[in-house]
Amino acid sequence: MAIRVRGHVHKGRGREFDVRRTAFGFALLAVLLCGLGLAVRTALRAAERHPVVAVLPAALLIVWTVALLRRRRSRRTAADAAAAALEAAYEVVDAALEEEAAAEPVAVTEPLPRALPVDYAAMDPYEFEEAVAGLCRRDGCLDAEVVGGAGDLGADVIATTPDGRRLVVQCKRYTADNKVGSQDLQRFGGTCYAVHGAEAAVVVTTGDFTEPALEYAEQCGILCVDFDGLAAWSEGSAPPPWHVPTAAETVG
What's the whole-model pTM score? Predict the structure, then answer.
């Protein structure tokens, strides 16, 4: 008589370790944490203005997501939970951004105030020389310095123009009634070229020039800047006096 031998049946055998399922779980957790971090950061930024409205959705989202992770039963359930959590996180972020943009005050653009004109006539002679040297430096004569004083032989400011010429400037802080005359120009003309080696000679005054002085200056190639010319130069509506017009500017 044959005896049938039954095979051993192993009950209660544990589920085998699944590498892919575990990797998917960690990836899912990382995505959820990123979404939660973005939502929490945005909520905290909005909480500065509306604490209750901004913090409550973020707290509910965190509790709901943790509950979903604990109830994870299968790969499909976990994927659905992740998608739902991310969607909720994006909704919280969008709502916070819209609220922040709506609360942002609208900036009113106003024209910048115009700079007040400099009162050169109120300066003392040394301040006026420093102011003229500052204009020279502003317009490219970076080495401009005040050399005026006793024995200056007519040179108050010496500099180098942007195109490399030696600039010699004499400053005359005169009133409107005291004009620069031809004798002043003649004294400057006798030293600016021969003594100071000027390649561009300029006389700047807070007053005006007499007609003989302008005639002499034109003959000697000395550039004269009166009160109106000084104001235009200072405000930038006129080029510096040593500026040499280009061919295109001359034609125009």
Answer: 0.54
